[in-house]
Amino acid sequence: MANMAQAIRMALHYGEKHLNVKDIFGQDVGAPLGGVFTATQGLKTAWNAPLDERGIIGMAMGIAMAGDRCVAEIQFCDYIFNTIDLLKIAGNTYWVTNGNYNLPMVVMTPVGAGIRGSVYHSHSFDAWASRLPGWKIVMPSTPLDAYGLLLSAIDDPNPILYLAPKALMRVRGQEIIPGEMEDEKELKSRIDAPIGDRSKWKPLWPDLQDYRVPIGKGKVITEGNSITVISYGRMVLICEEIAKELKQSADVEVEVIDLRSIYPYDWTLIKNSVEKTGRVLIVNEDTEVTNFGEHLIYRITQELFYQLLARPQVLAGKNVPGIGLHPNLEDASIPQKNEIKNLILEICSEVP
Amino acid sequence: MSNKKVPQKNHLVTKVKEQGKKSKIMPVVSRSGGIKSDGLDKGLLLRIYEAMLKSRILEERLIKIYRVGESFFWIGGPGEEAWGVPLGLHVKKGQGLSYDWLHLHYRCTPTLVAMGMPMIESIRMMMNRATDRSTGGRNFCNHYCFPEWNVAPVTSPIEVQYPIACGTAHAQKRIKNGGITIVSGGDAGTAEGDFASCLVWASRKGAELPMLITVQNNKWGISTSYDGQHGEQNIADRGKAFGIRTRVLDGNDPIETYRILGEEMDYIRKNKKPVLLEAHVSRLYGHSSATGANYISNERDCLIEFEHFLFKNNILKESEKQRLVNQFEEEGIAMTAQVRGEILPSADSIWDRIYVNNENADWRKF
């Protein structure tokens, strides 16, 4: 069973073999490292780029404009900020040119806290990304979704931002990626680069199969009637854990939705769930002021106001300039399990 | 056309400045007044002149459209014809990686006129009509985009075209008989990091890119003079640090630019390596309509200089010039009248073409 880094690697391999990907590039993406999270090890078309984020995004835009498929990586989303106007241009190119040029490109970048990554390895980018019209933004929470979303992203004719929750890169999934071997040791021996000299190493790729997670489609992780909790990325796993605990301890049935696509988002799934529960909490790591969750809450209050039984809420990162290194600081800045749990109980106890 | 005083000095000699060499004067006109047989025969000279004249008249038409209130803004490249037209004539024009890619900026009308762009395309964009093939009325004038000629969209942010151009050059390099990528911008924009990015990415050892990197140095960035902003002697000198072949040329001399562009583009096609060219040009109507768009009489005017040369060498007659002026003026007036009656972008079209196949982009309709 693959972890998320292996799932991404296998999706990229599938992409270069079957979906005409010609370039996978970024800082340390090629040999010998194969990415700081090992997500690009052993790939035929992976290469190391200069340490220049604007160059990486510009190169990807040019390759896409020329009609070739590429996947570019910004090593951490903390370093994507100096590319923001290029991202804006990539998002508006199809519109500004009135359909003359589309840019089929994927930009991958690890996001979020949870690895004690300090001020510049803990940022989130989902709220920023949601302000880039023309892009589609996806964020998996499981290896299987990481695989399926990446294949959909590679095949999409629009620019796709693929946000990878860095704290989940080593987390193994519960579901088999079509074609992968179940035995994790066997998988590791075949596709993980060895320690030491890698100059002669080549991966033995499994016979991977096509599997797509459609962009724009979320997923109900746990069903419940008491409250809807909408999240994506790392926070989905925490919310799922809470849902299991609350079902046993407090007889609260939490319906956890993994949005998977931030834009376009699965409104039908959200609507059906909130109409059923009447209570809603949105959880993510990005800072809380003009957070993407606020947009969802706005729409929920506009369209489902009279079905609500409690004030809908967003629990997000504190609006502070950085995530401090010491655990006391990081934990105070990013939603924690107890905080989420208590807020779920508070919303569930609210009397209309 | 303007009747400014014709310069007494014949500027139509090539002043070639190459790396490490002092300028040398290489006359292209023989003592008898004929053209040397270096490919610039009479027909070619007249072709260059016609495109220069047409481009100038087109830009002046755009300014007139602005002045009478039929457009919101003008920005363009009058004064760069002696550079832009020869460039356009050297382009291997077409769609796909086998042809040249152009990542231009908003002073490149002369290049597109030389490539054969009809005036009406420019006028439609100036008047924000839905029929504007480049942007459908969405963007400023001279922000061209023609996929059938590999013309990448011109954008307003300065210098972003330089790293983007590396991508098309990269894609071209991996195919046999690929075209080259041409990227252009102004002198002020070279202060942006994107210019340095382009030099870095174009010159990686073993992965050099087939690119013509150009800087049109008009000595201005809106109102800020070149002097005081640059420590380097020539902008082109920056290429030397990257092992990039560089040249500085007189962009007001169409014979020099035609010859040097031909040589350098041949070099790039043959060697699949980059060249950085810095062309000194004039900015004849200021930055844009925001600074008045009035004729600047103390800058060299390449069109007047070239006309003088052509008259002096009996290549062009005053009557023929007047015929061309009338023809292009009439075309500009007629096309403006036609475009005036063409459809406007509709309000509900804002949602069109955000995503491919008009996939829904309006969150209200998810």
Write the layout of secondary structure elements.
The complex is a heterodimer of chains A (352) and B (366).
Chain A: H1 4-18, E1 21-26, E2 46-48, H2 53-65, E3 69-73, H3 84-96, E4 105-111, H4 126-129, E5 136-138, H5 143-155, E6 160-165, H6 184-191, E7 219-222, E8 227-231, H7 234-249, E9 254-258, E10 261-263, H8 267-277, E11 280-287, H9 292-304, E12 313-317, H10 327-333, H11 337-349
Parallel strand pairs in A: 1-2, 1-3, 3-4, 4-6, 5-6, 8-9, 8-11, 11-12
Antiparallel strand pairs in A: 5-10, 7-9
Helix pairs in contact in A: 1-5
Chain B: E1 14-18, E2 24-26, H1 42-67, H2 81-90, E3 101-103, H3 109-115, H4 119-126, H5 161-173, E4 181-186, H6 193-202, E5 211-217, E6 220-221, E7 224-225, H7 237-240, E8 245-250, H8 254-271, E9 275-280, H9 302-312, H10 318-340
Parallel strand pairs in B: 3-4, 4-5, 5-9, 8-9
Antiparallel strand pairs in B: 1-2, 1-8, 6-7
Question: How would you sum up this structure in a few lines?
Answer:
The complex is a heterodimer of chains A (352) and B (366). Chain A is α/β, with parallel strands linked by helices and 352 residues long. Chain A is built from 11 helices and 12 strands.
Report strand order across the widest sheet of chain B. 2-1-8-9-5-4-3
C-alpha Rg of chain B, in Å? 21 Å
Element pattern of chain A in H and E: HEEHEHEHEHEHEEHEEHEHEHH
Structural class by helix and strand composition of chain B: alpha/beta
Level-2 CATH architecture of chain B: 3-Layer(aba) Sandwich
What helical percentage do the residues of chain B reach? 25-40%
- The CATH C-level name of chain B is Alpha Beta
